[in-house]
């Protein structure tokens, strides 16, 4: 899996913020796999979330960023894929904790609710923060179906 590639996808509402975040990622020396939107023409967020999920499943990137108007729809669509742990974040704290406690592999944000400065801060926290593991690992395992027994929470 390319440890230096981040996959980006957005619907038409997230197009401009996605492009802003693309520059931030490139400034950090990381590669970007940009799946679109490539203009402001209407495009459905479930399709963009599915394309990002496929890119991660195929090993073309190690983390992803999704953007739509609010971040809600695209995060719901992404989390329908078992290997995706998409976190809808609105500030640095939620982005940091999404990585530390949930091992989120996808950051979802809303272009109509976040300004570019806050979105940049969220992205940087998401990229810089490692997963803590430990007591959080068993919970993350349950998200992927690795531990499904009710007794596994002891």
UniProtKB/TrEMBL annotation:
The UniProt record lists the keyword Isomerase: yes
Entry superkingdom: Bacteria
EC number of this enzyme: 5.3.1.6
Family affiliation: Belongs to the LacAB/RpiB family.
InterPro entries: RpiB, RpiB_LacA_LacB, RpiB_LacA_LacB_sf
PANTHER family: DNA DAMAGE-REPAIR_TOLERATION PROTEIN DRT102, RIBOSE-5-PHOSPHATE ISOMERASE B
Protein name according to UniProt: Ribose 5-phosphate isomerase B
Molecular-function GO term, any one: ribose-5-phosphate isomerase activity
This protein's UniProt keywords: Isomerase
TM regions (residue ranges): none
Record-linked Pfam families: LacAB_rpiB (PF02502)
